Backbone:
């Protein structure tokens, strides 16, 4: 009788542990993968990733739209490269051409941090932006590539 009671107690304990386990917090597979072209502040941007300093005609007036591609910055977890679209001397949109994506955790960090960094960039109109906690290497690579593109744009 004692063995049956012990077996039932162990079975219930195991079932409780299995039901309460959250695989997404313990290295589970991430299903949120985004290609580099999906991380942008302007989804209608269709510029080529290899274009640097190309001029596109604007709808009218004297303001012109120019695309500047920053240097590729190698981080501990992979390369980061930023592309800016500048319209009339202001940053119109930011596109991340490369980011660390070697494993599901890198993609998860990029999907969280890059939209925040892009938003900070378009609001501040400079490379003087806050880093994203938990994405230090990606943030540093982003800022370095951003500064390179801003230098090319003379902003």
Residues:
């Amino acid at each position: 009788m004692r063995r049956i009671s012990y077996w039932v107690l162990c079975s219930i304990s195991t079932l409780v542990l299995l039901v309460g386990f959250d695989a997404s917090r313990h290295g589970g597979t991430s299903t949120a993968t985004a290609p580099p072209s999906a991380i942008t502040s302007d989804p209608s941007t269709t510029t080529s990733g290899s274009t640097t300093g190309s001029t596109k005609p604007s709808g009218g007036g004297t303001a012109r739209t120019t695309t500047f591609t920053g240097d590729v910055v190698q981080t501990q977890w992979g390369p980061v490269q930023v592309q800016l679209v500048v319209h009339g001397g202001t940053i119109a949109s930011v596109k991340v051409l490369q980011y660390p994506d070697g494993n599901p955790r890198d993609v998860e960090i990029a999907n969280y941090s890059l939209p925040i960094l892009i938003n900070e960039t378009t609001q501040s109109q400079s490379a003087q932006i806050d880093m994203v906690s938990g994405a230090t290497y990606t943030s540093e690579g982003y800022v370095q590539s951003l500064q390179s593109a801003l230098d090319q744009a003379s902003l």
